[in-house]
Amino acid sequence: MTWWHALIEAGAVPAAYAPPPSVGASARDEAVGNAPADLVEDAELETHAVASPLAGVIPRAVSFLNGIERWSIVAYDGVVQIVNAYVAAAVCRRDDRGVLHATFERSRAFAVAPIDRVSPTLRPLLEQMAPDIEPVDGELAGQPARYLEQVESTVRRARAHLERELAETATASLGAEEWLVLDGLLSRWPAVTRHPRALGVIKSHGAQFLEGRGLERALTLPAGYRTSVFAVRGGHTRTEVYSWYLRLWPWEGNDLLYGLLRVEARADRETVTRASAVSSWLWAERAPLATPATRWDRLLYPLHHVEEYLKARAPRSPAVRSRLPVA
Amino acid sequence: MIDKAIPIAIGRVVATELKPATPHQFHFWTPTDTTIGIGAIVRVGGLGTGDEGRVVYGVVTEGFAYSDLATPLHDVVGAEGDPTRAAEAPTARQQIRYWTAAVLRQTPEEPLQPVPLGQVYLADDADVAQALRMDGFLYSATPTAIPVGLYTSAGRDSPVYLDADFLLGPEAAHLNISGVSGLATKTSAVEFLLASIFAHFPAHKGRVAAVCFNVKGPDLCFLDQPGDLSDEDRRRYERLGVPSTPFERVQLYAPLKADGVNLNTLRTHPDLVDDVEPLTWGLQEVVDYAEVLLNRDDIDAKADAFIDFLRDRVLSRTFDDGFGTTHRVQTFADLDRLFRSIFDGLEITAGGRSDTWRTHHIATMRKVRNRLLNISTRCKGLVTDDGPSSDLPWNEFKDRTVYVIDIANVDPLGQDLVFARVVSKLREQLERRELGVDAVVVFVDELNKYAPGDGPDTYVKKMLLDISERGRYLGLVLFGAEQFRSQVHRRVVGNAGTQLFGRMDMDELATPGYQVLTPATKSKLATLPIGELMVRHPHFTQPIFVRFPKPPVLRGRDGVERFPPAADVPFEDAVVRQLVRLDRRVRPNQVKDLIADREQDDVRRALAAARRTRPDDVLAYFRKVLGARVDSDGSRAREHQAVPPLNPISGEPY
């Protein structure tokens, strides 16, 4: 019996609300707004053609890190929504044949509930039955919509925490020539940011680092081009990283962000030196396509693979099960 | 010897709503790099099989591979339309090897349930025995296991056994083997299987022999000569417990050529020809199977009645033809004299006013005469106009002996006659338990020809049907081979308890008889290498692929190269050779002096008598028979040679 079934048996009302599953880094992971960037390459933001990948450009050993999160309301205690959440992250290493193998993996299944607002009948049961509880502030418990935003933020933090732990573990064990590619901001994790062969690949562009002519050049970047490298400060720690835009697929006929990636790497001159080679490598990662993911134009296949791996290993959604008739 | 290895899971059963596991079929996946393929035997067990520890054995019947590619167009887009770039992608798409397996056996067998979603293991020797239900006859107090080959899928090397009770009777019997010609599969498989039967036929089932009809070239002429075996073949023989040596006891029979002294076979090399026994039959042997000689239009009650009359009232009896002549009909020449006497009697004595004799119409008699005398012309050498026969040892068949009857160069009518008579005699002797063995395997190649699915009901076809349907009770077992199973009479192939398939033609595989096979199994059958067979046996619920070693005997083609057939020798030398074979003391010059200026028919008769009698002093006996015959009945001997060919009376409408 699961902990929420125990709650339901004790009087909680069964629930079956699950938000759309979130996988990979989302726009909400990133800072939103304008954060001015300092160019560290070229006098003004330029576009550079990305050469076709030559032999040796693609590192022989690369690991890819991604994570997923799932949550659903499984019971109501009055209007208090009790949530079951699951977060997981994994690192898959690509071997010489191009096959990905999971090397690190962590997951966490936990309850999200405003402990102080749970009824005295159910609270001890929740604390006893749920192996892992992430408490949230009970002030918003009476406002379901805002409460859910709080839950989502809590779950996302839990996932980010898991990813950070895994990223630090992975970078610590990278081989001499091995790279780590993360889905999302590299600047979230200062320890990882300092690694010379760690890259963050950002698919969402909530934050604008450029303006004017530079912004226009970045957003109308032709396929197979990158921008000049610029320095940004991202994440809650405001860690400085070097970054550039790279267009994987032509935006014409689609939208300005179609096929547009932003790459983050260590704030170091070597990053500027390597920017073209790294871009050439990432350009080669366009194939195979990460279909059927909807954002396949920006999602690298190996990161998509890690997502699929994690989804396959995740427990069944309790929401689905709870829709079945109760005997 | 059964190997028991530590099992390592190689896959896992998966089931979806669209492709669920059932009691008879399941699906599983394996790593991309796997040793299993179509025909592999697997075991489902371990985690996921429930508290009762249900174990399921299955054979892989279909395989699939696919990736997470949603549509082929995405691959085109990813490679930007350039196929050469498709392979340059740094990451390999996630892909799957997905297999379908047919259930061979479940333990416990009741209640029969869907296959559990457990782990999949490669079958080891013990598993193969369990899966194919061989444990019942392999480990019993009176084992009846006959090795048929090695199961070699997935790197395994497990012996596969047939149950002698179901291969040679009495539970089921008969074996049918199909396959395209020229791949040394059908004949080789039967040769190996005979060797296996001889090595493993259970003692409690008695004695066994084989009769093989060699109907093409030198196929079965060198079963007593060792062939070239590779080390791998020898290892397989050792694994199967079958000696890798040629048959110890082989007796080859071949008719004589038209000259009556040279053998009509390709085994005439001087080193080997002494082992060949002549096969010659006289009137008595032929007339019992006169129905074989009659075509469909001939078969009527009148002809049958007249043949019965000859058989019952005339042959080997003193008989008065009613026109003043007494006959004792023992040879074709005697029979022809009787017919001529009757016809003359009707013409002369009766003045042509009567056209019946002893209630038989003259036309019926002429027809029967033509058919009977025709055989002595068309099959001269096999059927003697005059003289005694040389036949198989019907009361003295030896245990573990192969009797090869070489009729490759005999007229088709003669082949039918040989086949009909040999099989009939085998049946008669087995019914009386007087054959000398308890079971006989009769190997007939080219069943397409002898028991076709369509066409007229010939005597031979009826005989094959009779063996197929009733032979197992007697111990008369048919091993039939053909290129196109679909063209053989369905009751002949349907009654074969064991069926072997070599490489098959795709057109043949498209016929309804193969609808039970999956496309993958058909594809495998169409590309089977030499030495591999698909086996169906009553204990096996699904077809199984096995490998068998090359037969330990000299292949016909190789035999002819190693032992080139000798040219026909002159009459005198042939007589000398046969007499010397009977008695090494015989001097050629003595024989040549003896037969000089003698009629050849007289010499043949004397030779046949010596062959049949096998006296201590062959030359003396030969001299006596030859002399007595010529001296006492010389005029008759000359008359014998005057048996007229049929052409002069071929104008008759019969």
Structural account:
The complex is a heterodimer of chains A (327) and B (654). Chain A is an alpha+beta fold and 327 residues long. Helix content of chain A is 28%, strand content 30%. Chain A has helices at 3-9, 122-129, 144-172, 190-193, 212-219, 269-284, 301-313, 318-322; strands at 13-17, 22-23, 33-34, 38-39, 47-49, 62-77, 80-94, 100-113, 133-135, 179-183, 198-202, 207-208, 225-227, 230-234, 239-247, 260-266. In chain A, a hairpin with a 2-residue loop joins strand 6 and strand 7 (80-94). In chain A, helix 1 (3-9) runs antiparallel to helix 2 (122-129). The radius of gyration of chain A is 22 Å and the shape is elongated. The model of chain A is unreliable at 320-327 (pLDDT under 50). In chain B, the strands form five sheets. Chain B has a ten-stranded mixed sheet. A six-stranded antiparallel beta barrel of chain B has the order 1-2-5-4-3-6. Chain B has a two-stranded antiparallel sheet with strand order 7-8. The longest helix of chain B has 23 residues, at 618-640. Chain B has 654 residues and is of the alpha/beta class. In chain B, strand 15 (356-357) and strand 16 form a beta hairpin.
